[in-house]
Amino acid sequence: MKKLICMVLVSMLAVPAAFAQDRYIADKLFTYMHSGPSNQFRIIGSIDAGDKIKLLTSNKETGYSQILDGKGRKGWVESRFITRQESMAVRLPKLEKELSEVKEKLANARNNADSEKAGLVDSLEVRNQQISELEQNYSDISSQLTASQTEVRELRARLDTQKEDLLLKYFMYGGGVAGGGLLFGLILPHIIPRRKKSPSGWA
């Protein structure tokens, strides 16, 4: 019988610990721990704000909850000082770390964006320079083509003039030869004496 009672008592003490839930003390400076579920019970210690605790049970009538702190102490504190949310003392370093990581990512993103922007600007400048060089080359080629066309026209005009001069020379030379031959044919009979015919009809 005694063994049965002992087992029941042990199980009753073990049940609250099995159902203990993680909670935190709200962000106050500290709160007192009492030996019972009200401030009428003696103070057995204090617990700092932000400390992680185990919630064992709650007394809605008195507004106190039994807890187990990190030092293994059991006591009662006001339920309004217990929260599910981590305290600022715990959350602040995490938030600062997250903020630092976000800032680092943002800085990296800005550096990457600046690098890409600089690369695009350099590429644009190079392409603009290439376009300017191509336009200059096109202008030079156009000028050379215009000069070549002008020179070709001048050479063709000169060639046509030379052909006309050559034809005129040929014509004058041919006319001179023909005129000289005609004149020579007219003068020649007068220069050469005619032979007198003999009476017998023989020269």
TrEMBL record:
Topology relative to the membrane: Single-pass membrane protein
Gene3D superfamilies named in the record: SH3 Domains
Domain of life, source organism: Bacteria
SH3b domain span: 20-86
Membrane-spanning parts: 170-192
Range of residues in the leader sequence: 1-20
Keyword NADP annotated: no
Keywords in alphabetical order: Coiled coil, Membrane, Signal, Transmembrane, Transmembrane helix
GO CC, one annotated term: membrane
Coiled coil: 92-165
InterPro entries: SH3-like_bac-type, SH3_dom_pro
Subcellular location: Membrane
Record-given protein name: SH3 domain-containing protein
Protein source organism: Vibrio paucivorans
